[in-house]
Amino acid sequence: MLVMSDIIRGYTDTFILAQLLHHDSYGYEINKSINDMTSGRFELKEATLYTTFRRLEQGGYIISYWGDEATGARRRYYAITELGKQLYYENLTDWNDAKSMIDKILEDRQ
Hints:
Elements: H1 4-8, H2 12-22, E1 25-26, H3 27-37, H4 46-58, E2 62-66, E3 76-80, H5 82-106
Antiparallel strand pairs: 1-3, 2-3
Helix pairs in contact: 2-5
């Protein structure tokens, strides 16, 4: 039996980049947003989240900076780069292609 997390595991980078397309954000906020959008059905493990941030930053897809601690706890924020936007749109195209192929394979043949 397929587990939903197995299907979407390869898209962790894309999920994070999608969140950063809208505005800079920090780890907890990104994870909460993903969890809320999926009605609690998908949540990134903290280790996965921060490993992904490091990988994306090392690849030049995101940058990080420290937020203003005057507005509360000091948080590390992440922002998408132009290279990150390019990767997001390439991954989105790949996802749509794969989804289309899978839909055709699984569509009802009655």
